[in-house]
Amino acid sequence: MKRNGSLPRTSVPGKTVLLCFIFAALTVGALSGQEAENTGGEEQNYTPEYRIDDDGRIIQTLTWSRSNAYYYEVEIQRRNEAGTWETYTTERTEEIFLEISLPPGMYRYRILSYNVLGRVAAASGWTGVRIYPAREPVVEDFIPAAFHVDNHQEEFTLTLRGQDLMDEASVYIIAKVEKAKPIEPLSTQHSEDGTYLSAVFSAAGLTLGDYDIVITNPGGLRTVKEGFAVSFEKPVDLPVSLGYAPFLPLYGGLFKEYDNPFYFLGFYGRFSVLPFKRLWGNIGGELNARFADITTKDERFTLNGQLLIFTLSALYQRWFRDYTMAVNFRVGGGAAPVINMQFEHNDGSSSERQIAMYVSLAAGVSWQWYIWRGLFLEVGLDYVQFIAASGTPPGLMQASAGMGWRF
To answer: Which class would CATH give 44-131?
Structure first.
């Protein structure tokens, strides 16, 4: 029944159908536009994460970036013995990762993104994956058992022998102390049969102590081998040196009697024991023997005498320049006898020979340069203070230059 000539209300749904049609057309157009974004891309290498489930299977996790997709399809291909690729499996997922257990081999995969219409909207490039067999490396022995920080080497090679030391296996050493950081090698070499691995490490930054050797195969299994150490070549150093040592009198009654400004005829000998060795320095003891002829001639007489100084000192030694140079600091005390003291007059008469005994304190420094193995050159300067019962106690300086050997 018409009313006042107006159109029936059934014409409104027709507009709704038209709008829905237009919206669907635009949606299809947008989805079709997404299909145009397919990319081939060059194949990239990728190492997937993995975990081991309760059954002992190794589960790899393939991941990718999220896109505006309704779901994803993961196409996985495997390289066969002929070197060509063949489809291994195709998996569907709505996540941006896929957990799968792949046996050892060479694989590649790509991600196909699907829209709400079930059509491919985009395709990623191929990503290469190499799955290694899960083999635990076995280390039977290694050389050297220790690296000696005082052997003048900037690098050292650690050689491992065993089984299943696979190609591309990684190795590092780590000190057995809290919060120690792994020390990576500068380079590594592997044998084709998996029985040999060598790694070159830098000596810089090493500390004394025991280390673990950690080897990890590409499949993820690893082995920790104990027994490697960073130490000194010898637990105790025994340097011995001899040389020329003139004396310079400073003050005191003894040298006023002899009245000589410098004594050229002098020698020294040192024997050191250094049992406490650390990177910050060595600590030990030292026995010093000094000799000087202090004979003085005058117009009226000759005053004979020889000065001996025996000192037992505490010694601190600090190394430099990759253990080729060392500075030694010493302080101690001992005895200083003056022997054969005698006046010889020009008329031929002479006094009896006498001995004067002093207690001495000494402190000094010396520098050693190791020129070949244990052979070193040495120069030094020492101050000696005598303690006298009466009169002004004498004091002197002694310069020294000589050679020695470290046993």
So the answer is: mainly beta
